[in-house]
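Writing this down once: the sequence line spells out the residues, with the fold written below as integer tokens. I am pasting one below:
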Amino acid sequence: MHVLIYGKTVNESQVSAIQSLFDTLIRENATISIYEPYWEVLQPKVSVETQVQTVISHNGLKDKGVQFLLSLGGDGTILSAVTLVRNLDIPIMGINLGRLGFLASIEQKYIHRAIEYLKLGRYHLERRSMLSLEANKSLFDDIPFALNDFAILKRDDSSMIIIHTYVNGEFLNTYWADGLIVATPTGSTGYSLSCGGPILFPASKNLIITPVAPHNLNVRPIVLPDDSVISFTVEGRSDSFLCTLDSRFEVIHSGTKLSVRKCSFSIELVQLDEMSFSQTMRNKLMWGYDMRKYN
């Protein structure tokens, strides 16, 4: 079994869990590769008694024979890992060293079991659709895609913006708002959810348009088929706005034309056989828990 360890930062509270992961992988005779910037942070903090390879880029990951990417952190770490994996069909398993973690659903205490299940094949893969961005100017270099969401947002403390929105070339609505989100089913539990959008199961073939603090209170989130092409033009009192793909952003200006659609490739997430999306929702959102205190 050949795994790639991916992460961004390390704090002292995570070191014992990371050490446990390496110890478990070594016991299972796994071949270990590590994302090079993360390895530079890890080396002074953990002991790895085996030879490791390093990977620095998407191109460097090709032909390495990596079977799984283990993302150590929170959901943001997985979103970053997606920009490394891209279209290579390397499944990602998220080990939650952060907080809520809808995508990084494996808690620290289950690390040993997770590696054992990987080796035994006791897991299933969930294919997650992504978004692709097109624009009349160069944006986001060679990674114009997102697993969670695309958003157009006002900058700083500027007044609300005006977003003219079209679906398959037909005018849908003009949104007066702080911004607008287009989310995948995976992204339905992210920024869109915090703005009142619905939760979609991962296999749903849909996209969500969710306004951010709309001026007109009768404006509500809309669910569309995922073969839709959604396009926008933006205007406002300010001439500059933010365009985001997951946690990455670019500054755009009035006159920029944008469109998003389902990406031509998707990402696979590893789920252990005893886990499900419904179970994750119940645990993370504490559904069914009575939090009231009685005297």
In short: Residues 131-262 form a domain with the Tumour Suppressor Smad4 fold (CATH 2.60.200.30). The mean pLDDT is 91. The chain is about 20% helix and 35% strand.
